[in-house]
Specification:
By secondary structure, the protein is α+β, with helices and mostly antiparallel strands. Helices cover 28% and strands 30% of the residues. The strands form 7 sheets. Strands 19, 20, 22, 23 and 24 form a 5-stranded antiparallel beta sheet that branches. The radius of gyration is 53 Å and the shape is rod-shaped.
Length: 371
């Protein structure tokens, strides 16, 4: 009988597990078996944690603010973002938080059951981008590039055209053409890079080595040192500006005219060069010397005639006194008329001599300038 009860109890227990009943024996198979309905029976399931957050990006919005983004993770209800020692919670896949350069950033998902996923790969806050660099001309092809120090930067990258140079300083000297852009970015302690600064271009270099050769009285040949990257040049003579596409030009200029040149790169222009003055050529100098000698002869002749007229005037004054003493009115009137005429003659000779002297002074000025 007892073996049969054992089998029956085993069956009942099995059914109880399945149906939610509990078999409770009174005393080791000595009394009838009673059954009670089970209050609870928990069947536990294995709840998986969310997967690791991927594709985390950290973008600096300012020197003290960053934007963290990542891809949506399966089984995630919320996320935890840890930047430095501070943790921020969010249900989105992007968050704006405060953080300085070189602070560590990582993200993990939190499931509906509260289970935590693994932290993402650590990222680091990049330094804020540098201000626009300043380029100071130090020669035709070289320049000094400088910028302000960036908090958290351990080094910098300077891009000049397609060439990139690294430095731990905030300045460098390099070959910089006027038509090439220059920009800088900061690099943090973990190698994280900031955005590039604003790209700037070097102020065009002022042309140097100006020389002008006199072809004739009104024309000259102008030359200067070529500026790398120049689009063209502008030449100014007496406030008249013309354009030249090479480092030489044929100009309309007289002796003594001042000539200026400046570089143009795109729409940007350099300052005007120091002026050069058109000089005399050998033929012009010979002609001017000959002309001066002729004007000197004319001047001297007029002065001589003026002196002769003054002598005649003295004689006329004597004749006038005699005529007055003799009491001859007609003779007095005659001599007085001659005196008026002689004085006009002297004035004319003196004016002519003065005009000749002005011509001589102008020639001397040209000869002095054109040496």
């Amino acid at each position: 009988m007892i073996p049969l009860l054992k089998k029956l109890c085993a069956v009942v227990v099995s059914v109880a597990v399945i149906t939610g009943l509990t078999c409770v024996p009174d005393s080791a198979y000595a009394a009838p078996v009673s059954f009670q309905t089970a209050k609870t029976l928990s069947v536990s399931r294995v709840v998986k944690a969310p997967t690791q957050v991927k594709a985390v990006t950290v973008t600096s919005l300012s020197a003290k603010s960053v934007l963290v983004k990542w891809k949506k993770t399966a089984q995630a209800k919320t996320y935890q973002v840890k930047i430095g020692s501070k943790t921020v919670k969010t249900s989105k896949t992007t968050v704006k938080v405060s953080g300085k350069a070189n602070a560590s950033v990582k993200v993990r998902a939190v499931g509906k059951s509260g289970k935590l996923g693994k932290w993402s790969t650590v990222r680091y806050v990049a330094p804020w981008k540098p201000s626009a660099p300043v380029i100071s001309n130090s020669g035709v092809s070289r320049a000094a590039v400088s910028w302000k120090k960036v908090a958290g930067a351990s080094k910098y990258e300077v891009q000049i055209g397609k060439r990139v140079t690294r430095t731990t300083k905030t300045s460098l000297s390099a070959g910089v053409r006027s038509d090439i852009s220059v920009k800088v970015r900061a690099i943090g302690k973990k190698g994280q890079k900031s955005a590039w600064s604003i790209a700037v271009k070097r102020v065009p270099v002022v042309p140097s080595g100006l020389k002008v050769f006199a072809d004739s009285t009104y024309w000259g040949a102008l030359q200067w040192s070529a500026v790398p990257g120049a689009t063209h040049y502008e030449v100014k003579v007496n406030n008249t500006i013309s354009r030249a596409y090479d480092n030489y030009d044929s100009i309309f200029a007289e002796v003594g005219d001042q000539i200026f040149v400046r570089t143009v790169v795109g729409g940007r222009k350099s300052a005007w060069s120091a002026p050069v003055t058109k000089k005399l050529n050998a033929d012009e100098r010979t002609d001017l010397l000959s002309s001066r000698a002729q004007h000197e002869r004319y001047r001297n002749q007029y002065l001589a005639w003026a002196n002769e007229a003054r002598s005649e005037l003295s004689t006329l004054h004597y004749q006038l006194e005699v005529a007055k003493e003799l009491g001859t009115p007609e003779r007095v009137r005659e001599v007085e008329a001659k005196i008026v005429s002689c004085r006009a003659e002297i004035s004319g000779y003196e004016n002519d001599a003065k005009e000749q002297q002005q011509e001589i002074d102008a020639i001397n000025a040209k000869l002095k300038i054109g040496l």
